[in-house]
Write a structure and sequence with these properties.
Largest sheet: 5 strands, parallel
CATH topology: Rossmann fold
CATH class: Alpha Beta
Radius of gyration: 17 Å
Number of domains: 1
Length: about 200
């Protein structure tokens, strides 16, 4: 598997390169968005890791340009310290697949890459071009979340679903909100014994 890494930070590029070596993947390194887009064209990677905050061409612009070349098949994981849902939603609308929060932890990044490579395989198997219901919702990602929830007997919090499917919280949140809106999932208020009630989610 070939992983394209687009990040202006040399230390982060080195770290991800070492993680990829450990996992048995080949890393192709780009120092900015412009180089990343060109390498995407020439290297045909299986997955892209792209930093959000970069000079000249930031992560959003880079994702948009890559999606103009590849219409949804290659997974794009955004590296960021920004956990705001509105930022995540914008990235997903532009065509990103998932997120990995900095500082990077090797086990988390390897798990995130593996699940997104699985999503890519599902896309190929099902000829799913990626856009279901609204912009930023991919059928294969939705299927992974639903399959996990089907195996659970009790309603789950977003945090529990996130841990189970090994996708980012922001990704799972967007998909659950879409499934609540479409009537596929219902929200249950769990008042517990102490503190504020928690929202839990269950398939209809």
């Amino acid at each position: 598997m070939k992983i394209l890494v687009i990040d202006d930070n040399e230390d982060i590029r080195f770290t991800i390169n070492e993680i990829c070596k450990y996992a048995g993947w080949t890393a192709v390194l780009a120092i900015d968005g412009y180089e990343g887009v060109e390498l995407f064209k020439s290297e045909n990677p299986d997955l892209v890791l792209v930093d959000y905050h970069m000079p000249k061409l930031d992560g959003m612009e880079t994702v948009e340009q890559i999606r103009n070349i590849d219409s949804e098949n290659v997974p794009i994981i955004v590296l960021t310290v920004d956990e705001r849902q509105e930022v995540a939603d914008q990235f997903l609308i532009l065509g990103a697949t998932d997120f990995a929060l900095k500082p990077i932890k090797a086990p988390d990044l390897i798990a995130r890459i593996k699940v997104n490579l699985r999503i890519a395989q599902l896309l190929k198997m099902e000829s799913d071009q990626g856009e279901d219901y609204v912009k930023g919702i991919r059928g294969a990602t939705r299927k992974i979340i639903i399959e996990y929830m089907q195996k659970q007997d009790e309603p789950l919090t977003i945090e529990e679903i996130t841990a189970g499917v090994e996708l980012a919280y922001q990704t799972v949140h967007r998909y659950l909100m879409n499934m609540v809106k479409s009537g596929t999932v219902i929200t249950i208020n769990d008042y517990g014994k102490v503190g504020r009630p928690k929202n839990k989610y269950k398939l209809v």
